[in-house]
Amino acid sequence: MQISNNTVVSFHYTVLNEAGEEVETSRGEDPSLCLIGANNTLAGVEQAMIGKQAGDSFKVSLEPHLAYGLYSEKNKDRISAKYLKHEGKLKVGKVVRLNTNQGYKTGTILKVGKFNVDIDLNHPLAGQAVSFDIEIMAVRDGTAEEIAHGHAHGIGGHNH
After folding, report:
1. Does domain 76-120 have CATH number 3.30.450?
2. DSSP labels for 52-73?
3. Which member of 31, 39, 79, 82 has the greatest number of CB atoms within 10 A?
4. Nearest to 58, CA basis, from 50, 66, 69
């Protein structure tokens, strides 16, 4: 079966930064699941998957504006430390997840005060070209429920 809209793809990936250093991988864990056409992953990665099938391996390189965005000095904020208590001990350079009005965002701590934290809300890979090394493990049709929900269900996807 070829990957197309409304198919669920099970895949492993490795992300490399501009310097060619591995920054994230799913290998050694359960594969990731993605419902194609539902914006569950970067558009460039999804487009590169179209037409592939189980067993295919490929690489895709994305410029910053197609990956994690351009870096913006304006994307910094000072927030109450209480919003990050779920992250444990806070220290400069720690990457944290923050629940915002626009959903979860990843940020890097710039400064820790007694009550407030200065945070850079640019993705840690913002402004960098990145490469993905992808291996397609399985492809199946998305269920009606997955298509209605806009994401894949199961291990590596979204569990209800």
Report:
1. no
2. --TT-EEEEEE-GGGTT----T
3. 31
4. 50
